[in-house]
Write a structure and sequence with these properties.
alpha/beta; eight-stranded parallel β-barrel; 9 strands; 15 helices; TIM Barrel
């Protein structure tokens, strides 16, 4: 199914948000296997894409769901060139980054900084749309700060030049990721533009997704940081929005196997030394909320040998397997006593 077909479908779309250093190929593939409408790559510099096409290609390899590559840059020409290269790589759609709040990105006047220059922002969007045949989407924020909220005016201009879908992170750039995402702020887009838009920010559960849709009047949702350590979350959201019974969170035993499978895919993709470094953060996210996780996170960041890491992770989760078994036995004994 193409992006345009999925947006015209009766099902409410659930997208995996682009996250720098996180939504790499192994992570996108994992989330895709659980179930999600579309996944968006970590942002790729248009300059890097043009200069080092083959090196960037590895970061842009894709899996089973609708695949979107996100490009970032400030030159309309370079963005168009990188879009053409991306189309040649076989992606389903191209997303333009005008929402990243990171200092190193906005200091170069790209990402969310483009919302301060509407003329340039529109030129970039138009150049990318004209350069390719595949759909072009765009991710942005409410504006630079509370005094300069221009998501509405920009949305209208982006629609005019051919952008097919918008994703709005419901915070300003000055908020970064602090405070509460203002879902209600984008509700006016429903009558202002005809193209679909997604609500993004603070969607941490299936119930949050329902609430976000009610307040934002958006056509779908985009989920980001809440998926860290919970790659099954987008599919749980889809189940609730489809009116089905939400799939259960994997058991601790299943989670262990998911983690080790994800870890191996990262090692295979990047190689052992780099893969270990990259996956440390995932170990921390996966273990969040488990007893002893603080000590586990502290120690896992200092283990260097691959076999030692695997043994340490196995030992940590085995302790939780035992806790569950003991707990189940206690419940069973109490039940027998009551009988």
């Amino acid at each position: 199914m193409s992006l345009e077909e999925c947006l015209s479908d009766n099902r409410i779309p659930v997208f995996l948000a682009p996250m720098a250093g996180i939504t790499d190929t192994p992570f996108r593939d994992l989330v895709s296997r659980f179930g999600v409408t579309a996944v968006v790559s970590e942002m790729v510099s248009s300059e890097a894409m043009v200069r080092s096409r083959h090196r960037v290609y590895k970061r842009s390899t894709y899996g089973s769901s609708i695949q979107i590559i996100q490009l970032v840059g400030i030159s309309p020409q370079r963005m168009a060139e990188s879009a053409i290269i991306s189309e040649d790589l076989g992606v389903d759609a191209i997303d333009i980054n005008m929402g990243c709040p990171a200092r190193k990105v906005v200091s170069g006047n790209s990402g969310a900084a483009l919302m301060r220059d509407e003329d340039l922002a529109v030129k970039i969007a138009e150049s990318v749309v004209k350069a390719v045949k595949i759909p072009v989407t765009l991710k942005m924020r409410l504006g630079w700060d509370d005094e300069h909220r221009n998501h509405l005016s920009l949305a209208k201009k982006f629609e005019e030049v051919g952008i097919k879908m918008l994703a709005i992170h419901c915070r300003t750039r000055s908020q970064m990721y602090g405070g509460k995402a203002n879902w209600l702020a984008i509700a006016e887009l429903r009558n202002a533009v005809k193209i679909p838009y997604l609500c993004n920010g603070d969607i941490k559960s299936p119930e949050d997704a329902v609430c976000a849709l009610e307040k934002s009047l958006a056509h779908g949702v985009m989920v980001g940081r809440a998926v860290l350590g919970k790659p099954w979350l987008p599919n749980q959201i889809i189940q609730l929005l489809d009116g089905q019974k939400i799939i259960q969170t994997p058991s601790i035993v299943q989670q262990f196997h998911i983690i080790m499978e994800h870890f191996q895919s990262v090692l295979d993709f990047y190689g052992i030394p780099q893969g270990i470094k990259i996956f440390r953060k995932h170990f921390c996210w996966y273990s969040g909320g488990l007893s002893g996780s603080a000590c586990f996170r502290e120690n896992i960041n200092h283990v260097e040998d691959l076999n030692s890491i695997k043994n340490y992770v196995e030992d940590f989760y085995e302790r939780h397997f035992q806790d569950i078994l003991y707990s189940e036995k206690e419940v069973l004994c109490l039940s027998k006593q009551e009988i």
